[in-house]
């Protein structure tokens, strides 16, 4: 991923290195979400909540799988554009298209308009029926 350092130059991660480092077994040194950080997140949500060890393992595995699949798909996007480095836009494109996620503050500074869900005909009929019933009272 491209990042700017203090001198203003851009450093990049070679996407082939990112793919190789993301494969293989789970290593606690390489985990983005550690057991301690997971417990901190749970305490932020509910200070009285305690996770079972099996639940912690499952959540850590899900997080690792998500990160691995995101890195791999983003690397494939970078490879598709014939780039030698993984860029933030590759990750953004994968997250937006696969997971419908948009992380504000990264990449472009464009404002993302709120997309209102289209109103179906069935919804319009239900709302008309509700309005009709409300008029009777």
Automatic annotation (TrEMBL):
Does this entry carry the keyword Transcription? yes
GO-annotated biological processes: RNA polymerase II preinitiation complex assembly
Pfam families (alphabetical): TFIID_20kDa (PF03847)
Q: What is the originating organism of this protein? A: Ceriodaphnia reticulata
Describe the location of the Transcription initiation factor TFIID subunit domain by residue ranges. Answer: 36-101
Q: Report the InterPro entries cross-referenced here.
A: Histone-fold, TAF12, TFIID_TAF12_dom
Work out whether the entry's keyword set contains Transcription regulation. Answer: yes
Point to the regions of Polar residues compositional bias: 19-32
Family according to the record: Belongs to the TAF12 family.
By its UniProt entry, which SUPFAM superfamilies does this protein fall under?
Histone-fold (SSF47113)
Q: Which UniProt keywords apply?
A: Nucleus, Transcription, Transcription regulation
Tell me where it resides: Nucleus
Mention one GO molecular function: DNA binding
**Gene3D superfamilies per record:** Histone, subunit A
Composition-biased stretches (Low complexity):
1-18
Region (Disordered), start-end ranges: 1-32
Classify the main location.
nucleus
Q: Which gene encodes it?
A: EOG090X0HZC
Q: Which GO terms describe its cellular component?
A: SAGA complex; transcription factor TFIID complex
Q: What is this protein called?
A: Transcription initiation factor TFIID subunit 12
Source domain of life is Eukaryota
């Amino acid at each position: 991923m491209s990042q700017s350092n203090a001198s203003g130059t851009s450093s990049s991660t070679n996407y082939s290195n990112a793919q190789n480092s993301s494969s293989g077994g789970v290593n606690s040194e390489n985990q983005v979400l550690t057991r301690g950080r997971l417990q901190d997140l749970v305490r932020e949500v509910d200070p009285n909540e305690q996770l079972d060890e099996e639940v912690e393992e499952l959540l850590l595995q899900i997080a690792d799988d998500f990160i691995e699949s995101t890195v791999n798909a983003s690397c494939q996007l970078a490879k598709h554009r014939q780039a030698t480095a993984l860029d933030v836009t590759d990750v953004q494109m994968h997250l937006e298209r696969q997971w419908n996620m948009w992380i504000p503050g990264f990449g472009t500074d464009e404002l993302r308009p709120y997309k209102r869900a289209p109103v179906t005909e069935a919804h319009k009929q239900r709302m008309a029926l509700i309005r009709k019933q409300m008029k009777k009272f």
